Amino acid sequence: MKRGIGNYQIGDQFEGFVLIKESIKGTTSSGKPFLTLILRDATGEIEAKLWDITGEDETTFIQEQIIRITGEINQFRGKAQMKISSIRLAQPTDGVHVSDLIEKAPVEREELMEKLTEAIFEMKNPTIQRLVRAIMKKYQEPLLLYPAATRNHHEYVSGLAHHIVSMLKIARELCQLYPQVNKDLLYAGIILHDIGKLKELSGVISTSYTLEGKLLGHIPIMVEEIGHMARELKLEGEEVLILQHLVLSHHGKAEWGSPTPPLVREAELLHFIDLIDAKMNMLNRSLDKVKPGEFTERIFAMDNRAFYKPTFEQ
Fold it and tell me: Residue 121 in contact with residue 186, Cβ under 8 Å?
């Protein structure tokens, strides 16, 4: 592919291979069936409609299938949508693989692991270091592979590790500005806060919520995991309780998913660092898709705002 789906503009004609991320059957007001397809490649994703479908279409064009399509990029309710002209399943002779169509973190896994290891080595509190090191060892492989979410921010291969490492970089600067902050505690909270997503989410290709994720969520999952690992390592002390609090409160408010608000200085800082990195990731990737002087599409997770890209250079 010369260009990815994320680089196309309204009015462009598209021709190429994409991966079906989601396939949802619907019915028109006149009773005719159709499919809403969420299509993705390594540069982004787009919604498409396949009208007047047959029963064969419904069983053929399903999640995780690679397809070759042609179509036009239109606009619907302020967002890009593809009107499909032709569609077929990819064939082995096409030479296209799922790995070609999945977005990856802009940093190699080896570098991400190196930065995580550096942060753990910097910890001086033996209880915190032992606990974080043990959990990292247990979850290292999926941590370096999983996305941070199903959509909105860092929703790509190695996205979770990329999110954590980016947060650690922010924390390093803030700890210099505010030396009163307990760096061990903040670093540990950053590394652990989202690891529960490794059980909450299904994987990389078509990321969805697992049963455990739907019924419990990543925050309670991780609070329990910290307690379990502390007991296994026979670790006692206030550090374990405070780390559980950091995870429990990192969303900031009950309506955002945290059962308790931050009540420790490092918990408050963790919450804001998490917000900064998630929002900047969404903004940067949206702004990369528009030209100077244009607005992005509305970003649902940013209060449905569209952001302007200034025309003057930095």
Answer: no
Of all helices (H) and strands (E), which one includes residue 70? Answer: strand 66-76
Contact 57, 51 (CB under 8 A): no
Cα(282)–Cα(168) distance, integer angstroms? 18
- 293/309 Cα distance (integer angstroms): 6
Q: Which tokens hold the place of 7?
A: 């680089």
Burial annotation 227-257 (CB, 10 A radius, 16+ → b, else e): eebbeeeebeeebbebbbbbbbbbbbeeeee
Please enumerate in sequence order all residues whose Cβ is within 8 A of that of 41, keeping only pairs 6 or more positions apart, or say none: 1, 4, 5, 6, 16, 17, 18, 19, 100, 101, 103
Q: Give the chain's residues under pLDDT 50.
A: 1-2
Distance CA 249, CA 264 (A): 9
Cα–Cα distance for residue pair 178/61, rounded to 1 Å: 54
Q: Which residues contact 124 (CB under 8 A, 6 or more apart)?
A: 184
* 64 CB-side CA count, 13 A: 6
Q: Is the pTM of this model over 0.70?
A: yes
pLDDT tens column, 244-300:
999 999 999 888 889 999 999 999 999 999 999 999 999 998 898 888 999 998 898
Output the CA angle 246-129-181, nearest 5 degrees. Answer: 50
Whole-number Cα distances in Å, 107 to 110, 145, 295: 8, 12, 27
Percent of the chain topping pLDDT 90: 67
Burial 142-152 (b: 16+ CB within 10 A, else e): bbbbbbbbbee
